[in-house]
Structures are given as C-alpha cells and as structure tokens.
C-alpha cells in the first residue's frame, strides 16, 4: 500500500478511487492548507495530489522525500509545478486536460458576453439600488455577430472557445506556436496570424495559452503588456480565463483608464486572490474569482483523472496525462 497525500479538498469520487488501493490522507478543511502544514504532511508520500494553489518546487519535493513518484495536479495549468525539478528527480507530473475544456470555454465565453454587453455593469446597478429606467440608449453594448475573435493559444480550450464564437457568427483568428488541425481550422474558418496582427485586428482577444515563466522558451509572462495593449483597437476587449500573469495587470489598468481598449473580462489575476485595486474601480471590467472549471461535473472528472494518473504510476503503468514537453509549450 502506498501513501497518498491530497493537499486540499477534492471531490469524494477521486478520493474513493485512491482509497480502494492505498492509504490516503487529505486536508479536509475549507481554507487552503498552510505551506508549513503541507510540507509536514507530504513527508513520506509516494504520490501527492496538488491543487494550483500549491507551489511544487525543490522545497516541496525535499519535504516529500525520495520515495515520491508522482505529483498529480488537479488542474490543467501546471505553472505551480517546477517540472524541471520533478524531471531531475524522476518524479512524474500530471495534469487534467480535456475534462475541463468545455467548462472553461463556457467561462471565457460568458466573460466575453458579460463585458461586451455590459451585463456585469447592469447587475451592479441593480444590486446597488441605483435608479434606472429602460431607455433607447441605456447601457448599450457591443454586438458580437460579424466581429473578430482573436484566440491566443489554440489548444483544446482555445478551439472550444472558437467553436462557440463561430456559432455566434464571429470570425475567428488565432496565434499559436502550433498550427491548428487543418480540418478544424477549415471548419471554423480560422486564420492563423502573428500575435501583433491578431492584436491589431481582433475585436475580442481571448487568452488560452499556458503561463510559461519569463526567461523560459516560449514565455507567455506579460504577453499582454503595455505594448500589446497599445496595438489593440480602442473598441476591443480582452478576456483572460488562462492565468493572471499572462497580462501585466498594471498596464491593463492604465490602458482601461486611458480608453486604449474598451474593456476586460477576467477570471484570473496576477496575484490571486488579490485583485489590482485599479480594476475594482472600473466599470468596463468583469471580474470572476477563478471559476474557469468550477462545475460539479468537471471538478469531479478532474479529481478522478488526477486519481487515476496517480494510481497508474503507482502500479508501474504509464500516466494517462503526463505533463509532456509539447504540452508545456502548447497547454
Ligand atoms: C484551472 O485554472 C486549471 O488550470 O485547471
């Protein structure tokens, strides 16, 4: 029997899969485990299931010990894991792609609708009991039909967002280090552009790339910085359901204040759970507390996939969804 530590609460379905074969300990509190407690609890674990709030670095791996075989992240993004440090110790890192694709694309699409149609603003008006009345010119938004969606990062979630946009009558352009599957690109009528061209032509720029730290090949850290924002149309919107640090939040606040772009829909932030105070003051911004994959069904599927990854590796089998080099760049 191996010892498995789950560093924060996950749906029971995933825990039960692990318990059927191994000795499992899970942090079962509402609030996130402290770093200190986490390092103490993972000592001696053969497998650890982590959430995106855990930083898996040398300190974490040292605390776990040499017997650790697998770090199964219950998230598709794995910027919280130092994969090179895992590689150096022959520890396999896994993530949870595919099972959250549609849910996360729904979140991105919801943000796009909320910000372009000013639904967030409208909701805030009613909740704050601000007087209002129907009017021909009251809270007019921007229609999406015939507009261009620029997808940054055309992996699974980017393509799922593009499909939704196509159904809404939008044109789709994308930028990615990789070409989209030609058949999918043809179906969507999606044209590949250089990043700068996409920024200059899109009416909505939606981010779906992984966060790759500064200094690493293909870095996406602050990909949307002051220069990138200056290239966008003053009528354009940016949507981020990927990772906060892909946008330079300070530059975004400046661009929004200056009317350099029309608005932003954000599910993720540079320093979660802190939100830049400048964003809170702006009406043309919709803010969600990192809800990308937050449905009962999807979180259950994520927990099960992470559990099955850990179980496969503990049985000496291949991981189902290891974090591979290609995926590190592509997401
Ligand atoms: C959520 O943000 C995830 O990466 O799964």
What is the terminal separation in angstroms? 33 Å
- Overall geometric form: globular
How many domain regions? 2
Average pLDDT over all residues: 96
Radius of gyration, Cα only, in angstroms? 21 Å
Count of runs of 4 or more consecutive helical residues: 14
Label the CATH architecture of the largest domain. 3-Layer(aba) Sandwich
Could you give the count of β-strands? 12
Structural class: alpha/beta
CATH superfamily of the largest domain: NAD(P)-binding Rossmann-like Domain
CATH class of the largest domain: Alpha Beta
Task: Kindly report the CATH topology of the largest domain.
Answer: Rossmann fold
Tell me roughly what share of residues is in helical segments: 25-40%
Percentage of residues in DSSP E strands: 5-15%
Please provide the ordered H/E string of secondary-structure elements. EHEHEHEHEHHEHEHEHEHEHEHEHH
User: Biggest β-sheet, characterized?
Assistant: 7 strands, parallel
- Order the strands across the largest sheet as they lie in space: 8-7-6-9-10-11-12
Structure explained in plain terms:
By secondary structure, the protein is α/β, with parallel strands linked by helices. The protein folds into two domains: 3-97 and 295-330, Rossmann fold (3-Layer(aba) Sandwich), CATH 3.40.50; 101-287, NAD(P)-binding Rossmann-like Domain (Rossmann fold, 3-Layer(aba) Sandwich). The protein is 37% helix and 14% strand. It is built from 14 helices and twelve strands. The protein has a seven-stranded parallel sheet, sandwiched between helices. Strands 2-1-3-4-5 form a five-stranded parallel sheet. Helix 5 (101-116) crosses helix 7 (156-167). The radius of gyration is 21 Å and the shape is globular. The protein starts with a strand and ends with a helix. The model has no long low-confidence stretch (mean pLDDT 96). Bound molecules: glyoxylic acid (GLV). Glyoxylic acid (GLV) is lined by residues 52, 75-77, 100, 292-293.
């Amino acid at each position: 029997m191996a010892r498995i530590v789950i560093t924060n609460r996950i749906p029971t379905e995933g825990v039960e899969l692990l318990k059927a074969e191994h000795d499992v300990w899970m942090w079962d509190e509402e609030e996130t485990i402290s770093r200190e407690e986490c390092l103490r609890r993972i000592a001696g674990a053969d497998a650890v299931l982590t959430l995106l709030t855990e930083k898996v670095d040398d300190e974490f791996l040292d605390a776990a010990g040499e017997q650790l075989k697998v770090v199964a992240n219950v998230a598709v993004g794995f910027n919280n894991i130092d994969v090179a440090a895992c590689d150096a110790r022959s520890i396999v890192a896994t993530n949870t792609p595919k099972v959250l694709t549609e849910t996360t694309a729904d979140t991105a699409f919801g943000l796009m609708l909320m910000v372009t149609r000013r639904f967030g603003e409208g909701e805030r008006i009613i909740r704050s009991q601000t007087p209002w009345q129907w009017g021909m010119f009251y809270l007019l938004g921007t229609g999406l039909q015939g507009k261009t969606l620029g997808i940054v990062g055309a992996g699974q979630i980017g393509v799922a967002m593009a499909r939704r946009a196509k159904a809404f009558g939008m044109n789709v352009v994308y930028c990615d280090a990789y070409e989209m599957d030609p058949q999918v690109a043809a179906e969507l009528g999606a044209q590949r552009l250089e990043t700068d061209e996409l920024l200059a032509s899109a009416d909505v720029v939606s981010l779906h790339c992984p966060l790759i730290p500064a200094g690493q090949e293909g870095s996406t850290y602050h990909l949307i910085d002051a220069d990138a924002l200056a290239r966008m149309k003053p009528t354009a919107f940016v949507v981020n359901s990927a990772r906060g640090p892909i946008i330079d939040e300070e530059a975004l606040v400046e661009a929004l204040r200056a009317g350099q772009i029309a608005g932003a829909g954000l599910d993720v932030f540079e320093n979660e759970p802190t939100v830049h105070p400048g964003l809170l003051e702006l009406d043309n911004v919709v803010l969600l507390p990192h809800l990308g994959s937050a449905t009962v069904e999807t979180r259950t599927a994520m927990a099960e996939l992470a559990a099955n990854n850990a179980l496969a590796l503990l049985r000496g089998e291949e991981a189902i969804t290891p974090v591979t080099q290609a995926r590190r760049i592509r997401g």
